[in-house]
Amino acid sequence: MLGSFANALKATELRTKILYTLGLIFVFRLGAHIPVPGVNPERFAELVGSGAIFGFFDVISGGALKNFSVFAMGIMPYINASIIMQLLTVVIPHLERLNKEGEEGRKKITQYTRYLTVVLAFIQGIGMVVGVSGSLQNPGLATYLMTAITITAGTTFLMWTGEQITEKGIGNGISLLIFAGIVSRIPAGIVRVVEYLNAGTINILSLLLLIVIGALVIAGVVTVQEGQRRIPVQYAKRVVGRRVYGGQTTHLPLRVNQAGVIPVIFASSLLMFPETIVKWFSNSGAAAFYTKWFGWGTVAHTVIYALLIIGFTFFYTAVIMNPVDMADNIKKYGGFIPGLRPGRPTAEYISRIMNKITLAGAIFLALVAILPNFVLLTTRIPNIYFGGTALLIVVGVALDTMKQVESHMLMRSYQGFIK
């Protein structure tokens, strides 16, 4: 492994990309500790620490939410805007035409996504400021606007940073920022576990059980992330002029987890809304009822969370993967699935296969997302925000980044990481 890292640094272009990426990640981590003026960070930290859902989003932002820094909202508004634009591309004909125009069309959609990110960030910033008005030192209209504009600017800067990493660095910039935010909380989590161990709150067996569960989850995530169902496709021979094209057998790869971590983010954002409303009326009977029966960790919350993830997995997979278009493309290039006629029978076959593997991937995502509940019951280690969802993000981003580094190294005849 050390030799592979040394080889990666020998390639000038790859070394420049890695150092550029690390530099921008350092800027992101530096900004996560710059507080917004006019906010009492101690009082806001108590609010974040009182809810596990807030803790999850604090993990994604790398502690920026708990510090109420200029990056308090993180990159979530951009992710939401990207998801909304993907959904609108299927619904609105104009966006669908732009998506099919190639690079120029995608540039326009990217520009629309940026505008939508700023709008969503400002709206979310206003809602966040109003919801934590008790943490403001001088509540008022001017303070609300200044605070909302500040954290909106922070999100916009992170959006630009992620795009720069994608363009000039290595890996997907947005994913790497989330990755860096999660990984940055690991040392604090280790210190917390050691403190629990020294205080006698947990024992060494609980810690070993936690390590074993973590290793099994990582192995499962890698298996599912890399898992594919390969459908054989045969292409007929075509004669164009004096050349013969086709005649080869290939396959159509369908990933088990086609939706990635998007369904988990969808479900978490949806469940965070009532949790936020309850925090505004913490002393009411309705808030007490919700916390008792539907709060984080309850049976009802866990079941709803799992069902939402499964539903969003099917929904998002249906949006990004269209069996009819896939069948038409196979037919257009003279291909067919052995034993099936081109056209509608091929589309129906692909749809059946996708439904089966999507169900497996959706159930896996749901189990990974609700894993912290079972870890808490099994190990009795409290406040484990670095749960299955965080591991899913970290492992997925690490695999994608390693593949990009691998391709750069193989182009220069260096031995890569994956052997």
TrEMBL record:
Any one GO CC term of the record: plasma membrane
UniProt keyword annotation of Membrane present: yes
GO biological process, any: protein transport by the Sec complex
Gene3D superfamilies: SecY subunit domain (1.10.3370.10)
InterPro entries on file: SecY, SecY/SEC61-alpha, SecY_CS, SecY_dom_sf
Location (main, coarse): membrane
Membrane topology: Multi-pass membrane protein
Transmembrane segments: 14-32, 44-65, 71-95, 115-136, 142-162, 174-194, 200-224, 252-273, 293-316, 357-378, 384-402
Pfam family, one: SecY
This protein's UniProt keywords: Cell membrane, Membrane, Protein transport, Translocation, Transmembrane, Transmembrane helix, Transport
Location of the protein in the cell: Cell membrane; Membrane
PANTHER family for the chain: SECY/SEC61-ALPHA FAMILY MEMBER
Annotated family: Belongs to the SecY/SEC61-alpha family.
Functional description taken from the UniProt entry: The central subunit of the protein translocation channel SecYEG. Consists of two halves formed by TMs 1-5 and 6-10. These two domains form a lateral gate at the front which open onto the bilayer between TMs 2 and 7, and are clamped together by SecE at the back. The channel is closed by both a pore ring composed of hydrophobic SecY resides and a short helix (helix 2A) on the extracellular side of the membrane which forms a plug. The plug probably moves laterally to allow the channel to open. The ring and the pore may move independently.
Description of how the protein assembles with itself and partners: Component of the Sec protein translocase complex. Heterotrimer consisting of SecY, SecE and SecG subunits. The heterotrimers can form oligomers, although 1 heterotrimer is thought to be able to translocate proteins. Interacts with the ribosome. Interacts with SecDF, and other proteins may be involved. Interacts with SecA.
HAMAP family registered for this protein in UniProt: SecY
Name of the protein described by the UniProt record: Protein translocase subunit SecY
Organism the protein comes from: Pelotomaculum isophthalicicum JI
